[in-house]
Amino acid sequence: MHKVSAPRAVMEAELARYLAAPTDDPPAARTGAERDRVIPLFNDFEGCWALAMSGQLVFFGWEGPSDLQAVSDNPVDLLGSHVALAVGSRRYPALKGIRPERKAESIPCTSCDGSGRIAGAPENLICACGGLGWMPGSAPGAM
After folding, report:
1. Which of 50, 118, 39, 35 lies closest to 81, judged by CA?
2. pTM reported for the whole predicted model
3. Same domain, 126 and 62
4. Judgement on whether residues 26 and 72 belong to the same structural domain of the protein
């Protein structure tokens, strides 16, 4: 199970700010945030990666948004978690502490050549590294 450490009061304040402000997120992301009291970190084509008030990283799909699932530590979820935490740490500056930390076994991202941005791609396209320029060494396809 993937869990991060963040002060509960900070997470509550960020959730309240998210729910009070207009957003470009899909309506199901806001619905899930309200229903499950989670902070949407990153939306992909399958669903929403979010942070529960316990610090647990969770996911709910667009097809079954009421099915909140804890994110596991398997290699596929590890990559999604990496992106969600990287994007979420920029989206919510008060939660900058959730940003993944580069470790010795981390590798440069081959999608962006370590820059964090895909050359010629629109600004809203997020690289597979979450914009960090590196991937966890245990990510699928990592050496």
Report:
1. 50
2. 0.89
3. no
4. yes
